[in-house]
Automatic annotation (TrEMBL):
Location (main, coarse): membrane
Keywords: Cell membrane, Membrane, Transmembrane, Transmembrane helix
InterPro entries: MMPL_dom (IPR004869), Mycobact_MmpL (IPR050545), SSD (IPR000731)
Xref: Pfam families: MMPL
SSD domain boundaries: 255-380, 670-797
Protein name, UniProt field: MMPL family transporter
PANTHER family documented for this protein: MEMBRANE PROTEIN MJ1562-RELATED, MEMBRANE PROTEIN YDFJ
Species assigned in the record: Halorubrum ejinorense
SUPFAM superfamilies: Multidrug efflux transporter AcrB transmembrane domain (SSF82866)
TM regions (residue ranges): 21-40, 228-247, 254-277, 283-302, 323-343, 355-381, 421-440, 642-665, 672-692, 698-716, 751-770, 782-801
Subcellular location: Cell membrane
Amino acid sequence: MDPVTRLFGAITDRVIEQPRRVVIACLVVTALFAPGMALLEASAGSDQFTDGIEEADALDRVNEQFEPAFGGDDPTTQLIQRDVNVLDRRGLLDMLATAERLSDRDSQRVTEFSAAAMDVAAELDEDADTPAAARDAIERASEGEIEDAVAAAAEDPGFATLLSDDFNSESGTASAALGVVSHSFPASADTQALQGEAQVIAEQAPGDVTAFGGGIVSDETERVIFDSLGIVVPAALVVILGLLAYAYRDPFDFVLGGVALLMTVVWTFGFTGYAGIAFSEVLIAVPVLLLAIGIDFGIHTVNRYREDRAAGASPETAMRGALGQLVVAYSIITGTTIIGFLANLTSSLPPLREFGLVAGLGICFTLVIFVGFLPAAKLILDRWRAERDLPEFGSQPLGAEDSVLGRLLPRLSAVSRPAPAVFLVVVLLITAGAAGYGAGVDTTFEDDDFLPPSEQPAYVDYFPGPLQPGEYTATETIDFLSDNFATSEDDTVTIYVERRMTSDSALRSLARAERDPPDTFVTVDGRASVDSVQSPIDAYAAEDPEFEQLVENSALDGGRPNRNLDRIYAELRNSGYDDFTGEYLADDSRSTRVVYAVESDASDAAIAADARRVADRYRGDAIATGQIVVFQAVADTIFDSAIVSLAAALGLSAVFLVILFWLLLGSPTLGLVTLVPVTVAVATLTATMRLAGIPFNAITATILAITIGLGVDYTVHVAHRFHDEYSAGGDVDAAVVTTLRGTGGALTGTWATTALGTGVLVLAITPILGQFGLLTAASITLAYLASLIVLPPALVVWVAAVERRPGLLFVGRLLAAADAIDVDVDDGTTVDRPRTDGGADAAVAFDDGADEATRTDGGVDAFEWQTDPRSSADDPSQKR
């Protein structure tokens, strides 16, 4: 006996002979892992995907070295005001009243407040440097004085940056305003709690003023995950438990299967909590996988056990037979599935690597629980029931011969039976076309993927109180800011240049790069619309004649200055343009930021490509960055990761399956055959994604790994069962029929439970989770259909190729001929069968041991032994 067989035998013996010890050991491990679940932390938003992205690192350096449009190093909260006119007396007082309430709250630790209302108050009273003092100045002023103060404040170019795009300097009107509150907390402070409190204070203040900031966005992004799970999990449980109840048809087995599934989740996420891996949107896929694989293992174990029990075997003998066969299949499935998930370790995105690690480990835990705990607990449970003479509720396996499934599933091979080789060629041609079409599926990465919806789906109104999600304002606020203020990065890209900006050629090199802009860039008079360090130079020169003379004298032959640049920068920093200059020039003048406006209707891919080409024009070390470029880089990485992990998973799975089938079954080529339907499922899924307009994104990027994992699971079950049946009976058709009935019945229960159970993710509040649920259900369905429709003819072709039996490739023709004749079996009884072609009835007489039949109608002797598909699958010896 080889070492692998001895190992599996030892495992089976331990489970069957010492079930109590196995159950107790598993329960102890569960108790040890359970506290780890309390350590789980949520991680949400797009920032988790940008680690290690070169463009994102450049953006971080930009944010560190240059002053933001408003706010400094301290945490800041934005106050967003909406009104008919935020610059009239009432509008100014509403903004200042909210800021004053925040300043009076000790927990807010407000150090500074910037707003258009503060600038107007400063024109009325130069000592009005607090919201309270500014409010007093506005209240004392007349309407005319306020209008004059607004006009004076509007002369400062920074005044308009805190007002909406509809600001009219002549009439002194604007429909929205921003205020920036700085807090004296460290950058690592809990901004969620800080801004949450500010939000409550703003709601209680007069006027329409809203507090907003990154902490609020993070809070809502995390809450929407758990609110979605709060809706999806109960719905999934109802569906899964209902279908499991039908699959098991026994309350004891039903509870036992549910406990095993719960243990799998506890082990996996207990480990995740202990390991300090945050629960992100991507890890939502892991419990889906564990449920799918666990349900599959549980149904197959119980179903196979019931098959042997129905044949009269004792519980120990039945479980030994079930485990003796299924442990091999489970080991192959687990090893190959782990390879598929660990292929995600090739990704440069941390969340995808964490997904691969957690999913791979979770599958290992699933194997231990469903090979150890479930069979051992099942034996203990059945002994306990036998001692108390408790009734059996549903002991027949799914796919029993006299059941609806038992009659329906074998018919799935009818399409391929006439010519399995031709059927396979057609399937592979369709698969190649689907793969080519699916290669054009889009890849996206956007903040909107992680944000709660601006409007909740209508169906949530019908949920009971505990399932009602919270209110979300972040998306609506972000959309408002994007539509009404020029502070958004949505329509800009940044070129970060590291070079000595005091060199004589620095500003002129910037000018050369701005010429001949690409099509996706906004142009003004044939040049790119750009903001750079030249912008504050031009603005200050327009105000100060002496500075204008300095600039002109520093340009020897006209154009931009090419000397005295250090003096020009010093003058800017000493003027009122210090903050404006700091947005584009680093304090040490060794790096600069250039911001280009881009066309809003251009694709992110085209904008990013053009931005990289423009960056190549600059002297020095220049890189394109900004939100558009960073997100496109992440999208490209997601697609590359999906393709690389797919190739790695398929390649390594092929090698692994060949080795395992060789070691365990002595049939290495059978391992390659099992990947045929998996390839079909993957190609068809990508084509479905493109047809449905569902892109690869942060979550759906895992769907290919899931399809491989579940596809291998299903196909290995079918291939392994077929191998056992064919080895025992030597008859291809009988092996196919038995496999489709027995294993196909269990797979049908698995498919229905997991596909419908995970499909309820479409009820999730966030669309990205709904897409994931839809694709998961589709991938499970495709894997199921491929394993029962594509794999059987592939197995027939495999037998024909290995054993050189070309007649099998056209077995359907022989079976059709059999229907047209009468068969005289060994006992001499002649069975008349009417011909379906209208010809004369015929009879065939078989002698004992004869290899050929003699036609009595004068026709040519035609065919070899074949199994009658109408014969019992349990009696493959019946010959025709």
